[in-house]
Amino acid sequence: MKRAVFLDRDGTINIEKEYLYQAADFEFIPGAPEAIRVLNQAGFMVVVVTNQSGVARGYYTEEDVENLHRHIDRKLESYGAHIDAWLYCPHHPAGRGSYAVSCNCRKPLPGMLQEAAARYDIDLAHSIMIGDKLADIVAGTAAGCRTILVRTGYGTDEERQAGTETVVCDDLLSAVESLQTCIDQI
């Protein structure tokens, strides 16, 4: 089975912008591409799991989400980094049409992590979830992963509500650097 690092997208990899879907508005958080490269080199599968309720709300389409992910992939190539898999939840109970559902893939539920584990033979007990919201931490914990909250995006505000057992790092790069000391144990 493979070890994976699950990453939230908005506020963890890229600067938080409400309902981001256009490539022109995308900006990496400093150090994020380098962190992803370190994870790649360490042999982790890197899987992005992101809630995209803008689809359910009619702000943009699933095609827009996928186009942005391809744009991010191209940008990461210039850093010698890559994302192995992109999973997203387009649902929201207050959405429109077929997207207006309660589902098990929307974080804080662990559905996307469990789907990735089944699809890619990932050992969740030896994997990590990193994100800027408590919903990311709850999803990771529910899936059986170790978790890290980053202070980028909404992380500084979310940290105030996190329990003392929550591991907190300044950003994705510092989270990955903290993992380097214990990678063999994961």
Kindly list the characteristics that best describe this protein.
6 strands; 7 helices; alpha/beta; single chain; globular; 186 residues; Rossmann fold
The CATH superfamily is identified as HAD superfamily/HAD-like
Average predicted confidence as pLDDT: 95
Note the main sheet: 6 strands, parallel
Shape: globular
Please estimate the helix content.
Answer: 25-40%
Structural class: alpha/beta
Q: Tally the helices.
A: 7
Distance between the amino and carboxyl termini? 13 Å
Kindly give the count of domains: 1
Strand content: 5-15%
Low-confidence stretches: none
Radius of gyration: 15 Å
CATH class annotation: Alpha Beta
Structural write-up:
The protein is α/β, with parallel strands linked by helices and 186 residues long. The protein has a single domain (4-185), classed as HAD superfamily/HAD-like (Rossmann fold), CATH 3.40.50.1000. The protein is built from seven helices and six strands; from the N terminus they run E-H-E-H-H-E-H-E-H-E-H-E-H. The protein has helices at 32-41, 53-56, 62-77, 111-120, 134-143, 155-159, 172-180, and strands spanning 4-7, 45-51, 85-89, 128-131, 146-150, 168-169. A six-stranded parallel sheet has the order 3-2-1-4-5-6. Helix 1 runs parallel beside helix 7 (172-180). It is globular and about 45 Å long. The model has no long low-confidence stretch (mean pLDDT 95).
